[in-house]
Specification:
heterodimer; A: alpha/beta; Fumarate Reductase Iron-sulfur Protein, Chain B, domain 2; Rossmann fold; Glutathione S-transferase Yfyf (Class Pi), Chain A, domain 2; three-stranded parallel sheet; 20 helices; about 10% strand; globular; B: Rossmann fold; four-stranded parallel sheet; 5 helices; 4 strands
Amino acid sequence: MKEEIIRKTKAYYCLDCGKCTAVCPISNVRNGYSPRKLVTLTVNRSDDYVLQEAGLWFCLTCRMCQDICPSDVDYVELTKLLRGEAKKAGEEGRCSHGGALQSIMKIMTAPDLKQDRMGWISSDLKTSNDSEYLYFVGCLPYFDTFFSDIKANSLDIARSTLKILNLSGVEPQVIANERCCGHDLLWTGDFENFKRLAQHNVNEIKKTGAKKIITSCPECLMTLKVDYPDLLGKVDYEVMHISEFLSDKLSQIKIKGLEKKVTFQDPCRLGRFMNIYEAPRKVMKSIKGVEFREMKRSGAKAICCGTAGWINCDAFSKKIQDERLKEAKSTGAEILVTACPKCQIHFKCAQSEYGKEKSKDELKIDIIDLTTLLALAIGGE
Amino acid sequence: MTEKNFKPKIVVFACNWCSYAGADTAGVGRLQYPPNVRLIRVMCSGRIRPGFVLKAFELGADGVMWSGCHFGDCHYVFGNYRAVEQFEITKNLVKMLGIEKERLRLEWVSAAEGGRWAELIKEFVEDVKKVGPSPLRKVQGFKSSKVQGKKEM
Protein backbone atom coordinates (compact mmCIF):
# COMPACT_ATOMS: atom_id res chain seq x y z
CA MET A 1 0.00 0.00 0.00
CA LYS A 2 2.76 2.41 0.91
CA GLU A 3 4.39 2.46 -2.53
CA GLU A 4 1.14 3.49 -4.10
CA ILE A 5 0.58 6.30 -1.60
CA ILE A 6 4.12 7.54 -2.07
CA ARG A 7 3.69 7.53 -5.84
CA LYS A 8 0.33 9.26 -5.67
CA THR A 9 1.49 12.02 -3.36
CA LYS A 10 4.99 12.37 -4.82
CA ALA A 11 6.48 11.92 -1.36
CA TYR A 12 9.76 10.72 -2.89
CA TYR A 13 10.34 14.20 -4.33
CA CYS A 14 10.91 15.56 -0.82
CA LEU A 15 14.21 17.44 -0.73
CA ASP A 16 14.39 17.53 3.05
CA CYS A 17 14.51 21.32 2.90
CA GLY A 18 12.33 21.80 5.96
CA LYS A 19 10.25 24.68 4.64
CA CYS A 20 7.11 22.76 5.62
CA THR A 21 8.21 22.57 9.23
CA ALA A 22 8.94 26.28 9.25
CA VAL A 23 5.37 27.20 8.28
CA CYS A 24 3.51 24.41 10.08
CA PRO A 25 1.36 25.89 12.88
CA ILE A 26 1.67 22.68 14.91
CA SER A 27 5.46 22.48 14.62
CA ASN A 28 5.54 26.04 15.80
CA VAL A 29 4.05 25.14 19.17
CA ARG A 30 4.76 21.44 19.56
CA ASN A 31 8.31 20.19 19.84
CA GLY A 32 9.10 17.07 17.89
CA TYR A 33 6.35 17.31 15.32
CA SER A 34 7.21 18.06 11.75
CA PRO A 35 5.51 17.37 8.41
CA ARG A 36 8.91 16.59 6.93
CA LYS A 37 9.45 13.89 9.50
CA LEU A 38 6.27 12.13 8.47
CA VAL A 39 7.21 12.29 4.79
CA THR A 40 10.68 10.91 5.51
CA LEU A 41 9.26 8.16 7.72
CA THR A 42 6.77 7.18 5.05
CA VAL A 43 9.49 6.84 2.47
CA ASN A 44 12.08 5.12 4.66
CA ARG A 45 10.32 3.08 7.32
CA SER A 46 8.09 0.02 7.28
CA ASP A 47 4.30 0.26 6.97
CA ASP A 48 3.68 -0.70 10.57
CA TYR A 49 6.05 1.89 11.90
CA VAL A 50 4.48 4.72 9.93
CA LEU A 51 0.92 3.79 10.83
CA GLN A 52 1.71 3.78 14.54
CA GLU A 53 3.35 7.18 14.37
CA ALA A 54 1.40 9.49 16.68
CA GLY A 55 2.28 12.52 14.54
CA LEU A 56 -0.09 11.20 11.91
CA TRP A 57 -3.02 12.45 13.97
CA PHE A 58 -1.60 15.87 14.89
CA CYS A 59 -1.76 17.30 11.36
CA LEU A 60 -4.46 19.95 10.83
CA THR A 61 -4.49 19.33 7.07
CA CYS A 62 -4.40 23.12 6.74
CA ARG A 63 -2.21 22.91 3.65
CA MET A 64 0.34 25.51 4.69
CA CYS A 65 3.20 23.05 4.12
CA GLN A 66 1.94 21.92 0.77
CA ASP A 67 1.64 25.42 -0.61
CA ILE A 68 5.21 26.26 0.24
CA CYS A 69 6.73 22.91 -0.80
CA PRO A 70 9.17 23.43 -3.69
CA SER A 71 8.81 19.78 -4.75
CA ASP A 72 5.04 19.77 -4.77
CA VAL A 73 4.60 16.93 -2.30
CA ASP A 74 0.88 16.43 -1.75
CA TYR A 75 1.18 16.45 2.01
CA VAL A 76 -2.49 16.63 2.99
CA GLU A 77 -3.36 13.79 0.66
CA LEU A 78 -0.52 11.78 2.20
CA THR A 79 -1.93 12.36 5.66
CA LYS A 80 -5.43 11.45 4.52
CA LEU A 81 -4.40 8.21 2.82
CA LEU A 82 -2.12 7.16 5.66
CA ARG A 83 -4.92 7.77 8.14
CA GLY A 84 -7.15 5.59 6.00
CA GLU A 85 -4.58 2.80 6.11
CA ALA A 86 -4.10 3.26 9.84
CA LYS A 87 -7.86 2.95 10.43
CA LYS A 88 -7.92 -0.18 8.28
CA ALA A 89 -5.07 -1.61 10.35
CA GLY A 90 -7.18 -1.13 13.46
CA GLU A 91 -5.72 2.10 14.81
CA GLU A 92 -8.33 4.06 16.72
CA GLY A 93 -6.83 7.44 16.02
CA ARG A 94 -7.70 10.23 18.37
CA CYS A 95 -10.91 12.02 19.08
CA SER A 96 -11.93 15.12 20.99
CA HIS A 97 -15.18 15.47 22.96
CA GLY A 98 -15.21 11.75 23.84
CA GLY A 99 -15.88 10.87 20.23
CA ALA A 100 -19.37 12.39 20.36
CA LEU A 101 -19.10 14.13 16.99
CA GLN A 102 -17.67 11.05 15.31
CA SER A 103 -20.57 9.06 16.73
CA ILE A 104 -23.07 11.59 15.38
CA MET A 105 -21.55 11.25 11.92
CA LYS A 106 -21.53 7.47 12.06
CA ILE A 107 -25.10 7.34 13.37
CA MET A 108 -26.09 9.39 10.34
CA THR A 109 -24.93 6.61 8.03
CA ALA A 110 -27.96 4.55 9.11
CA PRO A 111 -30.30 4.44 6.11
CA ASP A 112 -33.60 4.54 8.04
CA LEU A 113 -32.85 7.50 10.22
CA LYS A 114 -35.59 10.11 10.51
CA GLN A 115 -33.88 13.21 11.77
CA ASP A 116 -35.63 16.10 13.44
CA ARG A 117 -33.39 18.92 12.30
CA MET A 118 -35.62 21.58 10.78
CA GLY A 119 -36.66 23.28 14.03
CA TRP A 120 -34.45 26.31 13.40
CA ILE A 121 -36.41 27.58 10.41
CA SER A 122 -38.59 30.29 11.95
CA SER A 123 -41.76 31.51 10.30
CA ASP A 124 -40.17 34.68 8.85
CA LEU A 125 -37.73 32.59 6.81
CA LYS A 126 -39.00 31.19 3.54
CA THR A 127 -38.10 27.91 1.89
CA SER A 128 -39.73 26.18 -1.05
CA ASN A 129 -40.00 22.73 -2.59
CA ASP A 130 -39.24 23.49 -6.22
CA SER A 131 -36.51 26.11 -6.27
CA GLU A 132 -33.44 25.43 -8.38
CA TYR A 133 -31.40 26.54 -5.37
CA LEU A 134 -30.71 24.32 -2.41
CA TYR A 135 -29.26 25.40 0.90
CA PHE A 136 -27.02 22.68 2.36
CA VAL A 137 -27.15 23.33 6.09
CA GLY A 138 -24.59 20.74 7.19
CA CYS A 139 -24.12 19.95 10.86
CA LEU A 140 -25.09 23.40 12.14
CA PRO A 141 -28.12 22.21 14.19
CA TYR A 142 -25.91 19.64 15.94
CA PHE A 143 -23.11 22.11 16.62
CA ASP A 144 -25.58 24.59 18.03
CA THR A 145 -26.79 22.03 20.56
CA PHE A 146 -23.48 20.37 21.32
CA PHE A 147 -21.59 23.62 21.82
CA SER A 148 -24.36 25.42 23.67
CA ASP A 149 -22.09 25.66 26.73
CA ILE A 150 -19.64 27.96 24.90
CA LYS A 151 -22.53 29.78 23.22
CA ALA A 152 -21.44 28.84 19.72
CA ASN A 153 -24.89 29.78 18.35
CA SER A 154 -24.10 28.00 15.12
CA LEU A 155 -27.69 28.22 13.96
CA ASP A 156 -27.36 31.99 13.69
CA ILE A 157 -25.31 31.23 10.59
CA ALA A 158 -28.09 29.14 9.10
CA ARG A 159 -30.77 31.72 9.91
CA SER A 160 -28.67 34.60 8.57
CA THR A 161 -27.89 32.71 5.39
CA LEU A 162 -31.55 31.98 4.77
CA LYS A 163 -32.47 35.58 5.52
CA ILE A 164 -29.87 36.87 3.04
CA LEU A 165 -30.98 34.37 0.41
CA ASN A 166 -34.61 35.44 0.87
CA LEU A 167 -33.65 39.09 0.51
CA SER A 168 -31.80 38.37 -2.73
CA GLY A 169 -34.94 36.77 -4.09
CA VAL A 170 -34.13 33.13 -3.50
CA GLU A 171 -36.36 30.78 -1.54
CA PRO A 172 -34.12 27.72 -1.45
CA GLN A 173 -34.99 24.13 -0.75
CA VAL A 174 -33.75 22.60 2.48
CA ILE A 175 -33.52 18.83 2.73
CA ALA A 176 -35.28 17.47 5.81
CA ASN A 177 -33.17 14.34 5.94
CA GLU A 178 -29.85 15.78 4.91
CA ARG A 179 -26.82 14.02 6.42
CA CYS A 180 -23.45 15.32 7.47
CA CYS A 181 -21.29 15.86 4.38
CA GLY A 182 -18.73 13.45 5.85
CA HIS A 183 -15.78 15.81 5.58
CA ASP A 184 -14.37 14.87 8.96
CA LEU A 185 -14.75 11.15 8.39
CA LEU A 186 -12.89 11.50 5.11
CA TRP A 187 -10.03 13.45 6.64
CA THR A 188 -9.71 11.13 9.60
CA GLY A 189 -9.47 8.07 7.39
CA ASP A 190 -12.95 6.54 7.71
CA PHE A 191 -13.55 6.19 3.96
CA GLU A 192 -16.22 3.53 4.26
CA ASN A 193 -18.62 5.64 6.29
CA PHE A 194 -17.79 8.69 4.21
CA LYS A 195 -18.92 6.84 1.12
CA ARG A 196 -22.26 5.99 2.74
CA LEU A 197 -22.90 9.62 3.64
CA ALA A 198 -21.85 10.80 0.19
CA GLN A 199 -24.15 8.34 -1.54
CA HIS A 200 -27.05 9.32 0.66
CA ASN A 201 -26.57 13.05 0.15
CA VAL A 202 -26.12 12.80 -3.60
CA ASN A 203 -29.33 10.76 -3.84
CA GLU A 204 -31.22 13.26 -1.70
CA ILE A 205 -29.95 16.15 -3.81
CA LYS A 206 -30.97 14.35 -6.98
CA LYS A 207 -34.47 13.84 -5.56
CA THR A 208 -34.94 17.57 -4.99
CA GLY A 209 -34.03 18.40 -8.57
CA ALA A 210 -32.00 21.39 -7.44
CA LYS A 211 -29.12 22.39 -9.66
CA LYS A 212 -27.40 25.03 -7.56
CA ILE A 213 -26.29 24.28 -4.03
CA ILE A 214 -25.35 26.99 -1.59
CA THR A 215 -23.37 26.21 1.53
CA SER A 216 -22.42 28.39 4.46
CA CYS A 217 -19.66 26.02 5.54
CA PRO A 218 -16.42 25.82 3.54
CA GLU A 219 -15.97 22.17 4.45
CA CYS A 220 -19.35 21.23 2.99
CA LEU A 221 -18.43 23.32 -0.05
CA MET A 222 -15.22 21.45 -0.65
CA THR A 223 -16.66 18.03 0.06
CA LEU A 224 -19.68 18.48 -2.20
CA LYS A 225 -17.72 20.17 -4.95
CA VAL A 226 -14.49 18.17 -5.01
CA ASP A 227 -14.70 14.97 -2.99
CA TYR A 228 -18.16 13.73 -4.01
CA PRO A 229 -17.37 13.85 -7.76
CA ASP A 230 -13.99 12.24 -7.03
CA LEU A 231 -15.70 9.34 -5.33
CA LEU A 232 -18.98 8.94 -7.20
CA GLY A 233 -18.22 10.33 -10.61
CA LYS A 234 -19.74 13.38 -12.24
CA VAL A 235 -22.55 15.06 -10.33
CA ASP A 236 -25.16 17.23 -11.98
CA TYR A 237 -25.18 20.12 -9.55
CA GLU A 238 -23.15 23.22 -9.05
CA VAL A 239 -21.90 24.17 -5.57
CA MET A 240 -21.01 27.61 -4.29
CA HIS A 241 -20.22 29.24 -1.02
CA ILE A 242 -22.61 31.92 0.14
CA SER A 243 -19.93 34.59 -0.36
CA GLU A 244 -19.53 33.57 -4.03
CA PHE A 245 -23.27 33.65 -4.50
CA LEU A 246 -23.42 37.12 -3.00
CA SER A 247 -20.68 38.64 -5.14
CA ASP A 248 -23.11 39.71 -7.90
CA LYS A 249 -26.21 39.95 -5.70
CA LEU A 250 -24.96 42.52 -3.20
CA SER A 251 -26.31 45.47 -5.16
CA GLN A 252 -29.83 44.04 -4.93
CA ILE A 253 -29.90 43.91 -1.16
CA LYS A 254 -30.62 47.01 0.86
CA ILE A 255 -27.92 47.22 3.52
CA LYS A 256 -28.34 49.69 6.36
CA GLY A 257 -24.70 49.65 7.41
CA LEU A 258 -22.72 48.92 10.54
CA GLU A 259 -20.12 51.10 12.26
CA LYS A 260 -17.51 48.50 13.16
CA LYS A 261 -13.90 47.65 12.60
CA VAL A 262 -13.58 44.07 11.41
CA THR A 263 -10.88 41.60 10.50
CA PHE A 264 -11.17 38.27 8.72
CA GLN A 265 -9.99 34.73 9.46
CA ASP A 266 -9.54 32.82 6.19
CA PRO A 267 -10.74 29.25 6.75
CA CYS A 268 -8.29 26.75 5.27
CA ARG A 269 -10.94 25.00 3.19
CA LEU A 270 -12.22 28.23 1.70
CA GLY A 271 -8.83 29.82 1.14
CA ARG A 272 -6.00 27.47 0.44
CA PHE A 273 -8.17 24.59 -0.77
CA MET A 274 -10.85 26.36 -2.81
CA ASN A 275 -8.94 29.54 -3.58
CA ILE A 276 -11.71 31.87 -2.51
CA TYR A 277 -10.08 34.92 -0.93
CA GLU A 278 -11.73 37.91 -2.55
CA ALA A 279 -15.42 37.01 -2.31
CA PRO A 280 -15.75 37.25 1.50
CA ARG A 281 -13.69 40.44 1.56
CA LYS A 282 -15.92 41.95 -1.07
CA VAL A 283 -18.97 41.19 1.07
CA MET A 284 -17.44 42.87 4.12
CA LYS A 285 -16.21 45.92 2.22
CA SER A 286 -19.62 46.43 0.63
CA ILE A 287 -21.15 47.17 4.04
CA LYS A 288 -21.32 50.89 4.70
CA GLY A 289 -19.44 51.91 7.83
CA VAL A 290 -17.42 48.75 8.13
CA GLU A 291 -13.73 49.36 8.33
CA PHE A 292 -11.84 46.30 7.14
CA ARG A 293 -8.44 45.58 8.65
CA GLU A 294 -6.23 42.78 7.41
CA MET A 295 -4.33 40.62 9.86
CA LYS A 296 -0.61 40.29 9.43
CA ARG A 297 -0.93 36.70 8.31
CA SER A 298 -3.94 36.60 6.01
CA GLY A 299 -5.07 35.15 2.73
CA ALA A 300 -2.94 32.18 1.74
CA LYS A 301 -0.80 32.73 4.81
CA ALA A 302 -3.65 32.69 7.30
CA ILE A 303 -3.06 30.46 10.30
CA CYS A 304 -5.47 27.60 10.89
CA CYS A 305 -7.89 27.81 13.81
CA GLY A 306 -5.97 25.04 15.55
CA THR A 307 -8.19 21.98 15.34
CA ALA A 308 -9.54 19.98 12.43
CA GLY A 309 -11.83 17.02 12.06
CA TRP A 310 -12.59 16.93 15.80
CA ILE A 311 -9.48 14.87 16.43
CA ASN A 312 -6.65 17.05 17.61
CA CYS A 313 -7.84 19.46 20.25
CA ASP A 314 -5.24 19.83 23.00
CA ALA A 315 -3.12 22.39 24.80
CA PHE A 316 -1.21 23.02 21.58
CA SER A 317 -4.37 23.91 19.67
CA LYS A 318 -5.19 26.36 22.42
CA LYS A 319 -1.78 27.98 21.97
CA ILE A 320 -2.41 28.42 18.25
CA GLN A 321 -5.86 29.85 18.95
CA ASP A 322 -4.62 32.25 21.62
CA GLU A 323 -1.92 33.50 19.30
CA ARG A 324 -4.37 34.01 16.47
CA LEU A 325 -6.88 35.83 18.69
CA LYS A 326 -4.15 38.17 19.90
CA GLU A 327 -3.16 38.81 16.31
CA ALA A 328 -6.75 39.63 15.44
CA LYS A 329 -6.97 42.00 18.38
CA SER A 330 -3.71 43.70 17.46
CA THR A 331 -5.28 44.97 14.23
CA GLY A 332 -7.56 47.12 16.38
CA ALA A 333 -10.64 45.34 15.08
CA GLU A 334 -13.73 44.93 17.26
CA ILE A 335 -15.05 41.89 15.41
CA LEU A 336 -13.27 38.84 14.13
CA VAL A 337 -15.25 37.60 11.16
CA THR A 338 -14.94 33.97 10.10
CA ALA A 339 -16.58 32.10 7.26
CA CYS A 340 -16.47 28.65 8.83
CA PRO A 341 -18.65 27.52 11.75
CA LYS A 342 -15.78 25.47 13.11
CA CYS A 343 -13.30 28.35 13.25
CA GLN A 344 -15.94 30.16 15.26
CA ILE A 345 -16.43 27.26 17.66
CA HIS A 346 -12.70 26.79 18.21
CA PHE A 347 -11.98 30.46 18.86
CA LYS A 348 -14.96 30.83 21.15
CA CYS A 349 -13.78 27.78 23.05
CA ALA A 350 -10.30 29.30 23.45
CA GLN A 351 -11.89 32.44 24.86
CA SER A 352 -14.01 30.57 27.37
CA GLU A 353 -11.27 28.24 28.53
CA TYR A 354 -11.33 27.62 32.26
CA GLY A 355 -8.53 28.93 34.44
CA LYS A 356 -7.56 31.66 32.06
CA GLU A 357 -9.43 34.50 33.71
CA LYS A 358 -6.36 36.69 33.87
CA SER A 359 -5.58 36.58 30.21
CA LYS A 360 -9.19 36.80 29.16
CA ASP A 361 -9.07 40.49 28.28
CA GLU A 362 -6.32 40.09 25.77
CA LEU A 363 -8.32 37.43 23.95
CA LYS A 364 -11.60 39.31 24.09
CA ILE A 365 -12.96 40.08 20.65
CA ASP A 366 -16.40 39.43 19.18
CA ILE A 367 -16.42 36.48 16.82
CA ILE A 368 -19.17 36.20 14.26
CA ASP A 369 -19.74 34.58 10.92
CA LEU A 370 -19.67 36.47 7.64
CA THR A 371 -23.38 35.81 7.08
CA THR A 372 -24.25 36.99 10.58
CA LEU A 373 -22.29 40.21 10.01
CA LEU A 374 -24.19 40.88 6.81
CA ALA A 375 -27.51 40.06 8.47
CA LEU A 376 -26.66 42.49 11.29
CA ALA A 377 -25.79 45.19 8.77
CA ILE A 378 -29.03 44.62 6.89
CA GLY A 379 -30.86 45.19 10.15
CA GLY A 380 -34.61 44.73 10.52
CA GLU A 381 -36.28 42.90 13.32
CA MET B 1 -36.30 -9.48 14.22
CA THR B 2 -39.91 -9.89 15.22
CA GLU B 3 -41.40 -7.86 18.01
CA LYS B 4 -42.13 -10.94 20.10
CA ASN B 5 -38.64 -12.31 20.60
CA PHE B 6 -37.05 -8.87 20.69
CA LYS B 7 -34.50 -8.78 23.48
CA PRO B 8 -33.40 -5.20 23.93
CA LYS B 9 -29.78 -4.42 24.65
CA ILE B 10 -29.58 -1.67 27.20
CA VAL B 11 -26.53 0.14 28.46
CA VAL B 12 -26.71 1.63 31.95
CA PHE B 13 -24.13 4.09 33.21
CA ALA B 14 -24.17 4.02 37.00
CA CYS B 15 -22.19 6.13 39.42
CA ASN B 16 -19.86 4.36 41.82
CA TRP B 17 -21.31 5.80 45.02
CA CYS B 18 -25.08 5.52 44.70
CA SER B 19 -26.55 3.86 41.63
CA TYR B 20 -24.01 1.09 41.31
CA ALA B 21 -24.36 0.39 45.01
CA GLY B 22 -28.13 0.49 44.50
CA ALA B 23 -27.82 -2.21 41.87
CA ASP B 24 -25.69 -4.13 44.33
CA THR B 25 -28.38 -3.78 46.99
CA ALA B 26 -30.88 -5.20 44.53
CA GLY B 27 -28.54 -8.13 44.02
CA VAL B 28 -27.93 -8.70 47.70
CA GLY B 29 -31.69 -8.56 48.30
CA ARG B 30 -32.12 -11.16 45.53
CA LEU B 31 -34.56 -8.97 43.66
CA GLN B 32 -35.31 -10.11 40.12
CA TYR B 33 -34.97 -7.76 37.19
CA PRO B 34 -34.60 -8.32 33.43
CA PRO B 35 -31.12 -9.39 32.27
CA ASN B 36 -31.15 -6.99 29.30
CA VAL B 37 -29.00 -4.35 30.93
CA ARG B 38 -25.24 -4.00 30.74
CA LEU B 39 -24.05 -2.00 33.69
CA ILE B 40 -21.08 0.32 33.26
CA ARG B 41 -19.67 1.83 36.42
CA VAL B 42 -18.33 5.36 36.31
CA MET B 43 -16.99 7.35 39.23
CA CYS B 44 -19.72 9.99 39.02
CA SER B 45 -22.77 10.73 36.87
CA GLY B 46 -20.98 13.97 36.03
CA ARG B 47 -18.30 11.92 34.32
CA ILE B 48 -20.76 10.68 31.69
CA ARG B 49 -20.50 12.69 28.46
CA PRO B 50 -22.73 12.91 25.39
CA GLY B 51 -20.05 10.91 23.60
CA PHE B 52 -20.63 7.89 25.87
CA VAL B 53 -24.33 7.76 25.14
CA LEU B 54 -23.93 8.41 21.42
CA LYS B 55 -21.30 5.71 21.17
CA ALA B 56 -23.67 3.24 22.81
CA PHE B 57 -26.39 4.10 20.31
CA GLU B 58 -23.89 3.99 17.46
CA LEU B 59 -22.95 0.44 18.39
CA GLY B 60 -26.58 -0.62 18.37
CA ALA B 61 -27.85 -0.17 21.93
CA ASP B 62 -31.64 -0.08 22.10
CA GLY B 63 -31.69 2.05 25.20
CA VAL B 64 -29.35 3.98 27.46
CA MET B 65 -29.87 4.89 31.09
CA TRP B 66 -27.86 7.55 32.84
CA SER B 67 -27.97 7.30 36.61
CA GLY B 68 -26.45 8.93 39.64
CA CYS B 69 -27.02 10.09 43.22
CA HIS B 70 -29.97 12.17 44.31
CA PHE B 71 -29.35 15.92 44.49
CA GLY B 72 -27.45 16.77 47.64
CA ASP B 73 -26.10 13.24 47.90
CA CYS B 74 -23.34 13.50 45.29
CA HIS B 75 -20.02 12.25 46.59
CA TYR B 76 -18.35 15.09 44.68
CA VAL B 77 -20.93 17.65 45.84
CA PHE B 78 -22.06 18.99 42.45
CA GLY B 79 -21.33 16.14 40.01
CA ASN B 80 -24.98 15.39 39.40
CA TYR B 81 -25.74 19.03 38.59
CA ARG B 82 -23.09 18.77 35.87
CA ALA B 83 -24.77 15.55 34.78
CA VAL B 84 -28.07 17.37 34.27
CA GLU B 85 -26.39 19.96 32.02
CA GLN B 86 -24.75 17.25 29.94
CA PHE B 87 -27.92 15.19 29.85
CA GLU B 88 -29.92 18.09 28.42
CA ILE B 89 -27.40 18.45 25.57
CA THR B 90 -27.42 14.71 24.95
CA LYS B 91 -31.21 14.56 24.99
CA ASN B 92 -31.44 17.27 22.35
CA LEU B 93 -28.83 15.61 20.14
CA VAL B 94 -30.55 12.25 20.40
CA LYS B 95 -33.89 13.83 19.53
CA MET B 96 -32.35 15.60 16.53
CA LEU B 97 -30.86 12.35 15.30
CA GLY B 98 -34.31 10.84 15.22
CA ILE B 99 -33.77 8.34 18.02
CA GLU B 100 -36.97 7.94 20.06
CA LYS B 101 -36.96 9.77 23.38
CA GLU B 102 -38.05 6.62 25.24
CA ARG B 103 -34.60 5.16 24.62
CA LEU B 104 -32.75 7.60 26.84
CA ARG B 105 -33.44 8.11 30.51
CA LEU B 106 -31.95 9.94 33.46
CA GLU B 107 -32.60 8.49 36.91
CA TRP B 108 -31.40 9.15 40.44
CA VAL B 109 -31.01 6.02 42.56
CA SER B 110 -29.44 5.89 46.00
CA ALA B 111 -27.44 3.00 47.47
CA ALA B 112 -30.38 1.97 49.62
CA GLU B 113 -32.94 1.87 46.80
CA GLY B 114 -32.39 -1.68 45.57
CA GLY B 115 -36.11 -2.24 45.13
CA ARG B 116 -36.54 0.94 43.18
CA TRP B 117 -33.59 0.00 40.97
CA ALA B 118 -35.22 -3.32 40.04
CA GLU B 119 -38.52 -1.56 39.32
CA LEU B 120 -36.85 1.10 37.16
CA ILE B 121 -35.01 -1.45 35.05
CA LYS B 122 -38.20 -3.46 34.61
CA GLU B 123 -40.06 -0.35 33.54
CA PHE B 124 -37.31 0.83 31.18
CA VAL B 125 -36.99 -2.57 29.48
CA GLU B 126 -40.77 -2.60 28.94
CA ASP B 127 -40.68 0.92 27.48
CA VAL B 128 -37.87 0.04 25.10
CA LYS B 129 -39.65 -3.16 24.06
CA LYS B 130 -42.65 -1.04 23.11
CA VAL B 131 -40.62 1.18 20.73
CA GLY B 132 -38.86 -1.82 19.21
CA PRO B 133 -35.31 -2.39 17.98
CA SER B 134 -33.11 0.65 17.45
CA PRO B 135 -33.05 2.03 13.90
CA LEU B 136 -29.27 1.84 14.10
CA ARG B 137 -29.16 -1.92 14.52
CA LYS B 138 -29.78 -2.40 10.86
CA VAL B 139 -26.79 -0.43 9.58
CA GLN B 140 -25.23 -2.76 7.03
CA GLY B 141 -21.70 -3.99 7.49
CA PHE B 142 -21.41 -1.97 10.59
CA LYS B 143 -17.89 -2.39 11.90
CA SER B 144 -16.63 1.06 12.55
CA SER B 145 -15.15 0.24 15.89
CA LYS B 146 -12.57 -2.17 17.15
CA VAL B 147 -15.04 -3.77 19.56
CA GLN B 148 -17.41 -4.72 16.79
CA GLY B 149 -14.55 -5.97 14.63
CA LYS B 150 -13.38 -8.36 17.30
CA LYS B 151 -16.82 -9.80 17.74
CA GLU B 152 -17.05 -10.71 14.09
CA MET B 153 -13.83 -12.67 14.11
